[in-house]
Predict the 3D structure of the following.
Amino acid sequence: MQLTDDIKDKTLRAIAQKVEDGIPVGRDDAVYMLRTNDVLDLAAIAQYIRMRLHGNVTYYGVNMNMNYTNICELRCPLCAFSCDKGDEKAFLLSIDDIEQRVKSAVSSGIDEVHIVGGLNPELDIGYFEKMFTCIKRIKPDIHIVALTAVEYDYIAGKNNLPLEEVFRRLINAGVDALPGGGAEIFAPKIRKIIAPRKISGNRWLDVMRTAHNMGLKTNATMLYNHKEGAEDMADHLAQIRALQDETGGFKTFVPLQFHGKNTAISQRQSTTGYDDIRIYATSRIFLHNVPHLKALWMYIGEKMAQALLKFGVDDIGATYHDEKIVHSAGANTPDYGSEAYLRRLIEEAGLTPVRTTAAYNKIDTGRDHEPGTH
């Protein structure tokens, strides 16, 4: 049976035919998918791609989340995490603090550390070199996913260094990959409202291009449920896909649901399940050249993350010890999930859990029976 046989909607059937024929869908197709109510037909297309790429495998990670400072020059309206220096909630971790936290997490069996923070003017590149070398000294094979494109751009400017030199030094210190944060939404008019002092979408793409050209694999994100419309999301996806055609450096796309509590953004009504499904499924269908689609259970909620495994998602996120950023903005999920908990979510969806790092190299737990490297 062909994918198109059971799809009744004429436009979605045409999109399905493009997918079967290996033809990238267009931006107008993305807008249509982001607005359709035929989510089961949308699911059929997204799952066709997901199963072709990954079969029944679903990935998860065992990691820690470390935010080294919340002091930030930008103070973006969308952010509930950042502080000015001197604020009673402001903090900056010393290298000794970091060493203690990582040692504790390593003793519990983590494979990876995920590191992001604010743009703190007191920190030069030496702080980050010491941080990464310290972490690698504790566990040489730990996978370090560190610093957003915004942070790399800031470090380059503050230290008066070419961006390539910043990447070279921090790779030498231990960075293995980049998270996808800071992309938000590329549409300039909206970006000026939600993050007016943050680097532009074009600059974010430039930094990622440089990272990819230097051999680093990265995530890409899209923040939704604030001021954006379907056209803005379609444009965002199109720019991610275009850079991926050029560099092949994005390994995972991660839609991020905006949480507005304690921010300066007047949030629209919370997304519906249909909204979330449309965004994830459309992302899977449109980004044919990005291998993985991740639904962070901590952002979207564990029940929706589990459901999205049938709408194109192949990665449910990780354990994330002590996550702070989304919880500062009112996320109701726990700030930590056990490995057993994540495996249960995946298995209850009828799928095979595979423990991995952000590089999608399988970690042998003695329980996985299907190949997990793609």
User: Anything to note?
Assistant: The chain has 15 helices and ten strands. The beta strands are 57-61, 63-67, 112-116, 143-146, 177-178, 217-224, 250-257, 292-293, 315-318, 352-355. Residues 230-247 form the longest helix (18 residues).
